[in-house]
Structures are given as C-alpha cells and as structure tokens.
Input
Amino acid sequence: MMGSRHAHVTAELGRRIVAGRYAMGTTLPLEADLLHEFAVSRSVLREAIKSLEAKGLLEARQRRGTTILPRSNWHFLDMDVLNWIANSGADPNMLFRLTELRAIIEPGACRLAASRANENELRDIENALERMSAGTENPSEFQNADRDFHLALLAATGNEYLAALGTAISAALAASIQQTNPTIHTNRATLPVHREIMDAIRNGEGEKAAQASRRQLNETLRSLQLAGSDDGLDNPHGA
Output
C-alpha cells in the first residue's frame, strides 16, 4: 500500500513539474500543505521527493525547501520523465527532438539487426508488420503495432542498451505515431517502407535496411514539422 501511495505522489508531482505548474527555480508548496492534499505520511512524501530528485526534477536542501530544477537537469531518458512530458502536451518540440534521436540511432540499429537477428526476433518484427497491415482502418491497433515494430527492431540488434532505449521511449514513440499517422491514408502510405525495412533485415541487407529506415524517419520529421507549424514548433532546421 505504501508503495502505491509513493508511486501516486511521485507521478502527480512529476506531471505538475513537467507541465509547468510549478515554475523552475521556485520551491514546492510547503510540506504540510502537500501532506494535507495527498493525505499521506511524511515518509511517503519524502520518498516521492527523493525519487524526483533522482530524476533530476527537484533538489531538496535543509532550510531552503525543495527547488524545481531547470530542464537541463532533467533525465530525459528516464521512462517516467518521458511519459510525463509526452502526456502533458507541454512541449511541442519534444516529439520532433525524439525523432531526431531516432533518425540517428535506428538506421544503425537496422544494420545490426540485419546481421544479428535470430529467427524469433525476425518473427516479432514480421508479426508487428502483419498487425500494422491488418489494422490500417483501426488507428489504435495500427499505432500499437507500429510502435511494436520499432521496439522489436531495436530488440533484434542484440544490444541490450538499444533495447532498453526502446523501452524508455515507448510512450513518446506512441505519441509520435499518433500524430504522424492519424488516418487510414497515412497508415497505408507508411506500410511499404516498413515492409522494405523488414525484408532487408530478413535478407541480411544491412545497408538497404538502414537507407529505408532513414527515409521513413525523414518523412516522420517532415510530418512533425508540418504538424508543428501550427503549434509553435521551434524547429532548428527552419520551415
């Protein structure tokens, strides 16, 4: 029970911080006020604050209170932090920047997968692609399958750090797919390049898989750029 209360307080305070409800450089409300609001013990609240300190969101000091740290301190690859940002809608640049990261990493991951993937890992990628194909008219099913395709691709590299990165960005990846593939038309349009990636990996053609991945992610960046033009996207590459 204590664990669930701790998780609830941690998540609620984390969401408020990333959404800007508490301004950076200011302090959290008084401990007594938070204890009253959340109806938890002092030990639960302090454990939640320690968790947020470990994620780079807070700094607690005696006689100075608990300060909201600037974004430069946040651990952006922490799964909770990424999820809170993705679900808050507070950062119109977040999905674009995340896709830039993917555009650097995934083509190389495709090369590794083409040379290392075992049969089970290949089947995981193929199954996700089949679900994408079957779910083009169901946005939710398609988006889940698309996310699983990319997670399976990272897992197929045989590199546990890349697989862990996929797990960390899973929620943000899903948010990106929702924005760039909102219709039956966009779902169908993206299938051929995903199939090209899969076929190249299956055939051990690493460079071909990497090139297809690069094209797919460049198109995703363009889609996010267009979507962000009406939402205040601060795109470093211009319009």
The chain is about 70% helix and 5% strand. Residues 235-239 have pLDDT under 50 and may be disordered. The chain has two domains: 5-73, 92-231.
